[in-house]
Amino acid sequence: MPHAIRFHETGGPEVLRWEEVEVGAPSAGQVRLRQTAVGLNYIDTYHRTGLYPVALPSGIGLEAAAVVEAVGEGVTELKPGDRVAYAGGPLGAYAEARLMPADRVVKLPDSIRDETAAAMMLQGMTVEYLIRRTHRCQKGETVLWHAAAGGVGLIACQWLKSLGVAVIGTVGSDEKAALAKAHGCTHTINYRTENFVEKVKELTGGAGVPVVYDGVGKDTWDGSLDCLSPLGLMVSFGNASGAVAPVNLGILSQKGSLFVTRPTLMTYTAKREDLVTSAQALFEVVGSGAVEIEINQRYALKDAQQAHRDLEARKTTGSTILLP
């Protein structure tokens, strides 16, 4: 029988278990997948800890590349042998084999390797909707991106550079600053040694930025609002440092009639057509060479506990994959 990582209670990495699972044949509208590479993402830790509650026991993981083994009734776009990838629910990507709704899976072009796909789908499509739809970044703009050396950040820096957008990126070390700059980040701020609000004001001549992209959460919320120009947009898309505390909306008027959004990839790709459009945009920018996917860590799937420990300790850079 195939194995999968599952958890029966919320908590630290130690709750993740390597278990045998029964997969079975696909029902109508489903495909059975043999997974070839699995993506590791920070949202996985939110499910594991209970920050984002799920019914237990549960699988974990939202992203993988795979080969279709069988298709259920009514599935016409996919056939056995097709290389595919996905990023989104239902949970359970940390598995050797699984069932997936066929309309949540996209075919991989020949130009994209399985490991690359597993490393980029969730992070890359997150960048796509953030910079093309949540705020449509324009040539000549300057934006602030927190955690610029992370998996999402490195993709964003490259993609934004290709659009002619300057990126001010926060990082946690000089090594991460060098990594971000090597991937197109225009200016880096080491938040451990510099005040990022003061530095953003300095770099923008006091004007601030039209948009802040923040996957960090609690630790950067207040400062991020102070980095925005009047009518600026605060995009809070993650909680790596913890959830943002309840907000007095009056602060938004005091700081310049600001806008705030808390978007998710799941909402932006809920419609099949939006999922396919987002994936195609990602395939094109990676296929053109404008964005290179950095897989800087590989773990055996059964070692998911250690992968989570390293991710939460901020020991990882770029993308991380788990190999069945």
UniProtKB/TrEMBL annotation:
Keywords: NADP, Oxidoreductase. It comes from the Bacteria. Gene3D superfamilies: Medium-chain alcohol dehydrogenases, catalytic domain, NAD(P)-binding Rossmann-like Domain. Residues 11-322 form the Enoyl reductase (ER) domain. GO terms for molecular function: mRNA 3'-UTR AU-rich region binding; NADPH binding; quinone reductase (NADPH) activity; zinc ion binding. Pfam families: ADH_N, ADH_zinc_N. InterPro entries: ADH-like_C (IPR013149), ADH-like_N (IPR013154), ER (IPR020843), GroES-like_sf (IPR011032), NAD(P)-bd_dom_sf (IPR036291), QOR-like (IPR047618), Quin_OxRdtase/zeta-crystal_CS (IPR002364). SUPFAM superfamilies: GroES-like, NAD(P)-binding Rossmann-fold domains. The lineage of its organism: Bacteria, Pseudomonadati, Pseudomonadota, Alphaproteobacteria, Rhodospirillales. One of its GO terms (cellular component) is cytosol. NCBIfam families: PRK10754.1. Coiled coil: none annotated. PROSITE patterns: QOR_ZETA_CRYSTAL. This is NADPH2:quinone reductase.
